[in-house]
Amino acid sequence: MKKFINTPKLAVREALEGLAASNDAVCLLSSTNVLLRSDIPSDPKDRPIAILSGGGAGHEPAHAGYVGKGMLSAAVAGDVFTSPSVDAVLAGIRACAGPAGAVLVVKNYTGDRLNFGLAAELARAEGIPTEVVLVADDVALLEMSKDNARGIAGTVLVHKIAGAAVEEGMGFADVVATARAAAADLASMGVALDGCTLPGAERSGFDLGEDEIEYGMGIHGEKGQRRGPMAEADEIVDAVIGTVIAQLDAGSNRVGLLVNGLGSTTPLELAIVARRAVMGLKAAGFVPELVWTGNFMTALDMPGMSLTALPLDDRRAALLGAPTAVRVWPVEASAPKQPIIVEDGGAEAAEVLGGTARPELKRAALAAATALRQAEPDLTRLDAETGDGDLGQSMLRAAEALEALPDGAFADPATLLAQAGMALRRVIGGSSGPFYAAALLRASQKLQGVSSPGPADWLGALRAGCEAISDMGGAAPGDRTMLDALAAAHEAGNAPAAGETVAAAAARGAKEGAARTAEMQAKFGRASYLGARAMGHQDAGAAAVAVWMQALAS
Known about the structure:
Elements: H1 11-21, E1 26-28, E2 34-37, E3 50-57, E4 74-80, H2 86-96, E5 102-107, H3 110-125, E6 130-135, H4 155-168, H5 172-185, E7 187-192, E8 212-215, E9 226-229, H6 233-246, E10 254-261, H7 267-283, E11 287-294, E12 304-311, H8 314-321, H9 359-374, H10 376-386, H11 391-403, H12 413-427, H13 432-446, H14 455-473, H15 482-493, H16 502-516, H17 540-553
Parallel strand pairs: 3-4, 3-5, 5-6, 10-11
Antiparallel strand pairs: 1-2, 2-4, 7-8, 7-12, 8-9, 10-12
Helix pairs in contact: 2-3, 4-5, 6-7, 9-11, 9-17, 10-11, 10-17, 11-12, 12-13, 13-14, 14-15, 15-16, 15-17, 16-17
Protein name: Dihydroxyacetone kinase
InterPro entries: DhaK_dom, DhaL_dom, DhaL_dom_sf, Dihydroxyacetone_Kinase
GO molecular function, one term: glycerone kinase activity
């Protein structure tokens, strides 16, 4: 497994050194893996209440990423997924705490609970008032008692609340009580799509089947509540948020929602998760006032997410929204109180088309749509080899747009080409949409007033479409684009073989032109960035032309 590490046993230390080297608000103890605020007074008597947390590394940005004014005074890091030692925790307490006291925010894992707990006893014996706030927010394993529940992503909300309480000037006992009350009210649950890989390991610590996911996964790769089949995002989120909601205190309908990525989940996916989780809370009668989305408590490179809900009142909301100097904490988390969808004043009105559909035109358009739909996997694979892999989905959207055209769009050839161009312009992203729209609109103009085009008329429309693409993008045949298939179709259609229809000849030409792109140097598009590395791979746009050309010929 490829990783940006040097020696696995030094990975945690070097990561902490990187944090300290890039942020003047923190510093690192020389003898142990403790990151602390750089503004802590040297005289213990001058130190405010200290908030410490930590545990095994691998959950970044937790915990070291939360060291700073308004959150943690120090973070104690163990090896990956391994609790730090008692001595390391005690060193952290000594480095940042004094008579004002220390609050240790600890996830409910045996190693963390024991080592932080013993360090607290030793610190108290040295005269430092020290209390442990245990976070056990994982509600996935409902048959277990709350005392045995794991501490997961909700821990970071306790960091924020406790740190803000200290900055506000709250006394030691009140800080402890406020943090414990928040920890008791938290409800979290995660789901993983696959395992995670430790530094130096060749493969993931466990494997899920191609169609399996794990509900209730822990943040160290521990098994969860159950395994289930892969499903759409909404179905997965509904299962998770439903379990979380069932554990919320019904006394308050105001909640904060933490949408947390486990390491390899993209921001796009997390936003989709957030959308559905907010909907689920609202449907259950809750008001999500604060929403945080991002990577807060990860499990190395695990693909997955967790949802955390925390009941709010004015006091707790103010602490969560208080300013902090911690760089990775979102500046703002207020959720909108008004509708999030507003009317688009610039939207085009849909054109109402009259006329009766001509069966042969509709049959041809639907045949092209079916062919593009069936070719989606192959087009995606082709595009991924030299581009960004989105052409298959773009052509699938094109197919759906053609299938959705009203009957009036099939009244005559010119109308069909114009309406298809407008529809594809709206649904296809990237460069393909504008190119298809321009080509179809230019071809439509060529057929204006021609009710029953013959082969020469259709070839003239095809040529006009090629010219539109060339005029807009600057490409020419031989540049390894969709034009290579279109131009070859035009050429072959003008010289069909004996017994070959013009349509069949054009389809043959498109297929041959697309195949030739594999030996061309790309001058346009993403493949042009690859230079010689694109050789040997067909241009996906040209291949798509061959697909729908063959469908029309059939």
